[in-house]
Design a protein that fits this description.
Length: 588
């Protein structure tokens, strides 16, 4: 699939920023492209791990945080039975574990409840509220859910429960754009329009981490190792929940990654050992693609209670059992996902594509629908909703692309759903089977995406001359990690570059390594998916016979344009710059 190359527009004086901060202009350009325009903002970004978090009860307080603290303190003092109601993904699991460990340490009578994905679905449900009432629960604390649980919280209040909601999802809104908020005793969600808190993009575990620290402080408890464990759990969720890795999220992840291999959380330590990460310098990749999927696998295939139990376990042998179970479940999940994705791709190849893909696959397990939807979205670059067969109705998961606010688009069809919720880039829903085709038609009729927007976009920070690329720049860019939503790995472009030669490496001999040259400077480059494209372009321009000759001996003296990230490749103790090629075209 072709990509759009666009260069970001900069309004900041890059030269001055470079001089004041003593950084390369390319680095200053990346900062500016992330909305950083002052020296204070730049220092907060560059030295994130040393920066303070916003005060919860400061000049711009988090709505209902004070009230929630007082209610929790009252519950603790009166020895009320507390239930933490979480969710089955990494964010919900870690949020639950944070509060369980903190409240237990404070002497609370507390239990946790994680809904079963297939049997109960996302969020609070009436039956679960009734079950908790029968267990004598007096205080209900929801984590990573609750903002849309209007009826369920009303039922909890009928039972006399004190209810505190900690959520980060979008609230429903009325025809005037006002938030529709449940009648809980305290609702903490920075996305509420009435919340003055300056940073809106914390995940639920990030919120729980900050609130738990405040609670410990108010209890005059100083427990460095417990606080560090909470930080590590919040780090897992902040990476895995794909929130913007800026401001407070960046601070949390920078601090957490730096210390996670020394964690005192027995469950996390064991999981790192069993995934061979205990000696690694951890990055967002290890969390997002190795640890996170293991935690999520529990909720997808069986019950996420296993994952919460892992992080709350104090006995090493039991923690190892939990960790090995999660790893085994993740391997099963991988196989299921691969088969399901292949099946959907095969079906889509044989028919014209809608702008918004609404796909009904009754034989795909609902627990992997979100992953498969994400894969399909990446391959076809269209907003994708994969709907599967569930117990009482159809259930679906959606993944979006830039320029398509999935939650708002679904909200415009709200009458079709039994239940739905989500973010601009992802959503979950349930609906009657007869509404699936109506949803498909309505979403596509309402879709305003242009053909250009349906091409993957590569956003280039700056056009570089090879003279500007050196180890100092590479290290400055490396310091800008962790990368993710809101802070993508910086991409640069260079025109009129000579490909001197290339060769193929890897088990399948399909990874393209190149030597590139511009203005007398040569750099090594690598492309993991570029060889087939190189063949395709060469055949198109020069014919099949000439293509074979041109590519036969690895000498391919063609002038090209490249988009790439700048990396440091260390091999046998020696470090060198390597360009990671994301796309290329023949120079015009």
């Amino acid at each position: 699939m072709e990509s759009r190359w666009t260069q970001k527009r900069i309004k900041v004086n890059i030269q001055k920023m470079s001089e004041v901060l003593h950084i390369r202009q390319a680095t200053a350009c990346v900062l500016a492209n992330r909305g950083i325009a002052t020296k204070k903002q730049a220092k907060t970004f560059l030295y994130a791990e040393n920066m303070p978090l916003y005060p919860i009860l400061g000049d711009k307080p988090m709505k209902d945080a004070q009230k929630a603290m007082e209610l929790l303190e009252k519950a603790l003092k009166e020895k009320q039975k507390i239930a933490i109601y979480g969710d089955y993904d990494v964010d919900g699991v870690t949020s639950t574990a944070i509060w369980y460990k903190v409240l237990r340490y404070c002497g609370a009578d507390v239990l946790y409840y994680i809904p079963h994905r297939q049997k109960e679905g996302y969020g609070l449900n009436i039956k679960a509220v009734e079950t908790l009432h029968q267990k004598g629960i007096q205080f209900l604390l929801t984590c990573d859910n609750g903002i849309s649980a209007l009826q369920e919280i009303e039922k909890a209040k009928e039972f006399g429960m004190t209810v505190v909601v900690i959520d980060h999802h979008e609230a429903a809104f009325d025809e005037n754009g006002n938030d529709i908020i449940p009648i809980a005793d305290a609702v903490i969600d920075p996305k509420q329009k009435q919340c003055a808190y300056p940073f809106k993009a914390l995940c639920a575990a990030g919120l729980c981490y900050k609130l738990a620290l405040l609670f410990l402080e108010r209890q005059q408890i100083h427990h460095a190792t417990l606080e560090m464990e909470c930080l590590h759990l919040a780090t897992l969720a902040t990476v895995c929940d794909i929130v913007d890795l800026m401001e407070e999220n960046r601070i949390i992840v920078k601090r957490g990654l730096k210390t996670m291999t020394q964690t005192t959380n027995i469950g996390l330590k064991t999981l790192l050992e069993e995934t061979n990460l205990e000696q690694k310098e951890l990055t967002e990749y290890h969390i997002g693609f190795i640890i996170g999927p293991c935690i999520n696998a529990a909720g997808r295939l069986e019950t996420a209670t296993t994952a919460v139990s892992l992080f709350c376990e104090e006995v090493p042998e039991k923690a190892r059992e939990y960790a090995l179970t999660l790893i085994e479940q993740n391997e099963s999940r991988k196989q299921m996902t691969e088969k399901a994705t292949e099946k959907v791709i095969e079906e889509l190849k044989s028919k014209p594509l809608d702008k918004v893909l609404v796909l009904f696959q009754e034989n795909i397990q609902e627990s992997i629908a979100g992953i498969v939807a994400g894969r399909i979205k990446e391959i076809f670059y269209r907003p994708t909703i994969l709907i599967t067969k569930a117990e009482n109705a159809a259930k679906g998961s959606g993944r979006s692309i830039e320029g398509y606010h999935m939650f708002e688009e679904l909200y415009a069809c709200k009458e079709l759903f039994i239940k739905f919720g989500g973010h601009p880039m992802a959503a979950g829903l349930s609906l009657p089977y007869e509404n699936i085709e109506i949803l498909q038609k309505k979403l596509n009729e309402n879709c305003k995406l242009t053909e250009q927007q349906l091409l993957p976009m590569l956003k280039i920070e700056k056009q570089l001359d090879f003279k500007e690329i050196d180890m100092i720049l590479a290290k400055e860019l490396q310091n800008m990690a962790p990368f993710g939503k809101g802070n993508h790995a910086p991409l640069f472009g260079s025109k009129n570059v000579q490909m001197e030669n290339f060769y193929l490496v890897g088990k399948e001999k399909n990874i393209l390594k190149m030597k590139l040259k511009q203005n007398g400077i040569s750099l090594q480059a690598i492309s993991f998916d570029g060889f087939s494209k190189l063949i395709e372009i060469t055949k198109r321009l020069y014919g099949e016979k000439n293509c074979d000759k041109m590519l036969a001996d690895g000498h391919f003296e063609q002038t090209m344009d490249f988009v790439y990230s700048i990396e440091i490749n260390t091999f046998r103790g020696e470090s060198m710059i390597q360009l990671h090629i994301k796309d290329f075209r023949f120079y015009e």
